[in-house]
């Protein structure tokens, strides 16, 4: 994942870049608010770490410009000022979190990971579809052609996996690890049985078949024309 750090204090900026890079992130470091806003608007980032006191444009104006442009990347504000009104201002402008200097890097890293997880979850669709098959993730409900289909928890998990990876042939070993959290044993037919039961509920009463067996390879959920 890619993070933009906008921090004009050299030691803090280098400290953040080194720590985040060692944690596995790709990091761009900018020391000027105007340059930082330009990069944020013209490149793709998963998260911004933004100092308040910056040359050219302060953090408030960078954040305001970012949100006015419709960019919804998570923003973690950094400031040396521990005033309630400053924190309120940042949150009202669209900041996602606020960290007071000096801070422990472990806390910053934990906040970064939390914001990134939250961002990923917010981008996930509530509904997965293939042809007239719909899986509602929030309501845990499956319908096909408007008809409600009752599934067990494992059948639901299997269908969700197939829908998320539709068009991709999934080997039995991957299905076993993802749905049952187990290593695939060639002597067990748990995957075949589960797919057969799911297919009976999803496909048997419908002319268009969605779940297909690819001999010697695995299973794929695919709707013609999609």
Give structural notes:
With 226 residues, the chain is α/β, with parallel strands linked by helices. It folds into two domains: 2-123, Response regulator (Rossmann fold); 127-221, Arc Repressor Mutant, subunit A. Helix content is 42%, strand content 21%. It has eight helices and eleven strands. It has helices spanning 10-22, 33-42, 59-68, 84-93, 105-123, 153-164, 172-179, 190-202, and strands spanning 2-6, 26-30, 47-51, 75-79, 97-100, 127-130, 133-136, 141-144, 147-149, 211-214, 218-221. The strands form three sheets. It has a five-stranded parallel sheet, sandwiched between helices. Strand 8 and strand 9 (147-149) form a beta hairpin. The model has no long low-confidence stretch (mean pLDDT 88).
Characterize this entry briefly.
α4 (84-93) links the parallel β4 (75-79) and β5. The protein has helices at 10-22, 33-42, 59-68, 84-93, 105-123, 153-164, 172-179, 190-202; strands at 2-6, 26-30, 47-51, 75-79, 97-100, 127-130, 133-136, 141-144, 147-149, 211-214, 218-221. The strands form three sheets. A five-stranded parallel sheet has the order 2-1-3-4-5, with helices on both faces.
| Oligomeric state, counting identical vs distinct chains | single chain
Q: Enumerate how many helices there are, as a single number.
A: 8
Please, what is the average pLDDT? 88
What does the largest sheet look like?
5 strands, parallel
Give the radius of gyration.
Answer: 24 Å
> What is the CATH domain class of the largest domain?
Alpha Beta
């Amino acid at each position: 994942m890619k993070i933009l750090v906008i921090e004009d204090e050299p030691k803090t900026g280098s400290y953040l870049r080194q720590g985040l890079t060692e944690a596995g992130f790709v990091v761009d470091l900018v020391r000027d608010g105007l340059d930082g806003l330009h990069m944020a608007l013209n490149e793709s980032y998963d998260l911004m770490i933004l100092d308040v006191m910056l040359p050219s444009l302060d953090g408030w104006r960078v954040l305001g410009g970012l949100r006015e442009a419709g960019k919804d990347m998570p923003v973690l504000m950094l400031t040396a000022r521990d005033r309630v009104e400053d924190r309120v201002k940042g949150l009202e402008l669209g900041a996602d979190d606020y960290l007071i200097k000096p801070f422990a890097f472990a806390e910053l890293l934990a906040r970064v990971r939390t914001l990134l997880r939250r961002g990923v979850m917010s981008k996930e669709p509530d509904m997965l579809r293939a042809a007239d098959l719909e899986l509602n993730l929030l309501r845990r409900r499956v319908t096909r052609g408007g008809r409600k289909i009752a599934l067990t928890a494992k059948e639901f998990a299997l269908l969700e996996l197939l829908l998320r990876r539709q068009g991709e042939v999934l080997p039995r070993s991957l299905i076993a690890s993802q749905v049952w959290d187990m290593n695939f044993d060639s002597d067990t037919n748990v995957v075949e049985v589960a797919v057969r039961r799911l297919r009976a509920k999803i496909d048997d009463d419908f002319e268009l078949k969605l779940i297909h067996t690819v001999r010697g390879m695995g299973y794929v959920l695919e709707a013609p024309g999609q």
